[in-house]
Amino acid sequence: MTDQQRARKPNPDIQLPGWAHMPAVPIATSPFFRWPPDPAAMWRWVAARWLSCAENVIVLALALISWVWLTPSPERMQSLSLDWIALIWLRNLGLMLLVAGGLHLYFHGVSLQGARLKFDPRQLMRKGRQFTFSNQVHDNMFWSLTSGVGFWTAYEVLMLHGAARGWVPWLDPAAHPVWTVLILLLTPVWISFHFYWIHRALHWPPLYRLAHALHHRNINVGPWSGLSMHPVEHLLFFSSILIHLVVPAHPLHILFHLQHQSLTAASSHTGYEGLLVKDRNRLALGTFHHQMHHRYFEVNYGNLEMPWDAWFGTFHDGTPAAHERLKSRRGRPAG
Predict the structure, then answer these.
(1) Under a CB-based contact definition with an 8 Å cutoff, are residues 31 and 45 in contact?
(2) CA distance 298 to 161
(3) CB under 8 Å to 260, separation ≥6 — which residues?
(4) Is the pLDDT of residue 52 over 90?
């Protein structure tokens, strides 16, 4: 089978009902949490995320650009002032429009990739009373650009102001190069740890009704769905950055951390497995793992960096066997 055929054709051997495209299954979690250790698999996992055109690398580049050219000096940030806070808010607004807006335009607006690598065959909803403004995309954009960018900016201002004032511990990369790199590498793992527990809490019925139900309006997702959340959920979601009240960090770590949470929320909800260039998947984007959470609801609360779902019995690896277990737990068919 050619690369072009692989890119266009769903897995012909293992299929679940209602999906237009499926990746290779079973879906694998991080090899760093498997026994016995597999150094080759660990290396491939790290290389795919840090030594190729990947989300982590792109976000790190954006964070570096933001720190060098689009962030006020530490001296200026020692005192809270509307001018530099507005600059950070405008930069974050622009990043969200660039990434979420660009991905939406490419995949769902102009639809340059068509249905290739698209998980759900349905289009995003243009009408629906469950959505603000009765439109899925308008609803998602509103919550992402108001509450989403607002809380992202508020946490960033808090941490950068604290670093400039000295009550957020500052890490000097020149003095601690190994720690500087290690913290970058471990940031997605910490975000994964934090996200699973916050997400499980948000599925507690009172919190779900108050906040998380807004995000779950999106059964079929698009790039703007990722950060479309209730303000209470944004408050909890971005709180992972507070780890750096204890763990020393350079401002670049803070920017990378918050941009990773915000921008990969958009890329992971594209609804497509990846971006095709000359009929080859050159950039991994939306995960089938999380796409199944939006449709099946009570599986895959975390992500693949840490296997919490596998440890707590809520992992759907995309296979028919996992689907049967889901249906058995529900006591009814799962489509």
Answers:
(1) yes
(2) 39
(3) 55, 56, 59, 187, 188, 191
(4) yes
Q: Is a pLDDT exceeding 90 seen at residue 331?
A: no
Q: Is 127 exposed, middle or buried (0-12, 13-18, 19+ CB in 10 A)?
A: exposed
> How far is residue 109 from each of residues 55, 137, 220, measured CA to CA in Å?
22, 11, 15
Rounded alpha-carbon distances, angstroms, from residue 59 to 64, 176, 206, 260: 9, 22, 34, 6
Nearest in space to 100 (alpha carbons), one of 142, 153, 71, 61:
142
Closest Cα partner for 12 from 28, 23, 3? 23
* Residue 253 in tokens: 């770590």
CB 93 within 8 A of CB 145: yes
Q: What does DSSP assign to residue 17?
A: T
CB 288 within 8 A of CB 318: yes
pLDDT in the model for residue 126: 87
For residues 295-304, average pLDDT: 96
In single-letter form, the type of residue at position 103 comes to L
How confident is the model at residue 12, as a pLDDT? Answer: 54
- Please write the tens of the pLDDT for every residue from 100-148: 999 999 999 999 999 999 999 999 998 899 999 999 999 999 999 999 9
What the block records as the tokens of 146 is: 């108001």
Give the residue among 270, 305, 306 at the shortest CA–CA distance from 288: 270
Q: Which residues pair with residue 275 across a beta bridge?
A: 283
Of 226, 244, 235, nearest in space to 184 by CA: 244
Nearby residues of 32 by Cβ (< 8 Å), 6 or more positions away: 42, 45
What is the Cα–Cα distance from 108 to 123, expressed in whole angstroms?
8
d(CA 334, CA 326): 7
Positive/negative CA dihedral, 171, 172, 177, 181:
positive
DSSP 216-248: GG-SS--GGGTT---HHHHHHHGGGGGGGGTS-
What is residue 7's predicted lDDT score, i.e. its pLDDT?
37
